[in-house]
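@channel sequence for tomorrow's demo:
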Amino acid sequence: MTYRVIALDLDGTLLTPQKTILPESLTALEKAKQAGYQVLIVTGRHHVAIHPFYQALRLDTPAICCNGTYLSV
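structure tokens (generated this afternoon):
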């Protein structure tokens, strides 16, 4: 089985210095999802702290949180 995954960190990767997601990033990630990619957040943050970004990206995939110590679904 082949998986097509885009795993994104938040700080310094997906988020701007103002802690927002650029509209262009939202569009690109939506196109990737439509093309069959699974988009995951992989972050050092706690799952409660990523919730607004998870919602903004309209994800239904697990998130890897707290520097990989647990998986949030």
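heads up for whoever presents: The chain has three helices and four strands.
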